[in-house]
């Protein structure tokens, strides 16, 4: 602290830290944008009615996860669902194809199943309309989870039915 250049060195160090943080944020945004484009190219829509615009200027890719459905009272795992979480929407898909060699050669493709606007979820949670409905727990960390209504068709029973 007694060195004549100490104050200048502290300022320079602070400036370098800010530049490093800026670069890190820019890299994260670029990765998220790139991943969003990859996802949009890999999702197959069954009908034109299902088609949604995945890449938008205000949308940010946040996270992806695999959801395993288990038949109630058993250990039978149904077809896994792929979930893509964006800043304003959650998209639910199935992976297409079961051939591991095929997956290794090509980028994995996903069959669109449904999407839910995060604005709709917020309204549903605040209206307490989830009581007694089948739901999925979306967890992005061990200490945080968000219950959402099942976007998959369900039978008359409260248990989600398998989707294909």
Quick structural overview:
InterPro entries: FYVE_RhoGEF_PH, PH-like_dom_sf. Helix content is 32%, strand content 26%.
Any overview of this molecule?
The structure is a single chain. This protein is of the alpha+beta class. The protein has a domain at 41-116. It is built from 3 helices and 7 strands; from the N terminus they run H-E-E-E-E-H-E-H-E-E. The chain has helices at residues 6-42, 100-105, 118-127, and strands at residues 43-44, 61-67, 81-86, 89-95, 110-117, 135-141, 144-149. Strand 3 (81-86) and strand 4 (89-95) form a beta hairpin. It is elongated, with a radius of gyration of 22 Å.
Largest sheet: 5 strands, mixed
Number of helices: 3
Measured by DSSP, the beta-strand proportion falls in 25-35%
**Helical percentage:** 25-40%
Question: Which class of secondary structure composition applies to the elements?
Answer: alpha+beta
GO molecular function: guanyl-nucleotide exchange factor activity
InterPro entries: FYVE_RhoGEF_PH, PH-like_dom_sf
GO cellular component, one term: cytoplasm
Protein traits:
alpha+beta, two-stranded antiparallel ribbon, 5-stranded mixed sheet, 164 residues, 3 helices
Layout of strands and helices, then pairs:
Blueprint: H1 6-42, E1 43-44, E2 61-67, E3 81-86, E4 89-95, H2 100-105, E5 110-117, H3 118-127, E6 135-141, E7 144-149
Parallel strand pairs: 1-5
Antiparallel strand pairs: 2-3, 3-4, 4-5, 6-7
């Amino acid at each position: 602290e007694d060195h004549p250049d100490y104050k200048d060195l502290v300022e320079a160090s602070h400036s370098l830290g800010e530049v490093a943080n800026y670069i890190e944020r820019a890299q994260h945004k670029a990765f998220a944008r790139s991943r969003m484009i990859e996802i949009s190219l890999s999702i197959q829509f069954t009908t034109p009615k299902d088609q949604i615009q995945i890449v938008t200027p205000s949308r940010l890719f946040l996270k992806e996860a695999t959801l395993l459905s288990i038949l109630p009272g058993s250990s039978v795992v149904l077809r896994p669902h792929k979930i893509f979480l964006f800043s304003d929407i959650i998209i639910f898909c199935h992976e297409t194809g079961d051939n591991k060699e095929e997956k290794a050669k090509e980028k994995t493709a996903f069959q669109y199943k449904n999407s839910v606007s995060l604005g709709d979820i917020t309204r549903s949670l605040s209206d307490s309309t989830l009581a007694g409905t089948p739901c999925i727990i979306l967890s992005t960390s061990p200490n945080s989870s968000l219950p959402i209504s099942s976007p998959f068709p369900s039978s008359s029973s409260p248990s989600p039915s398998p989707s294909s």
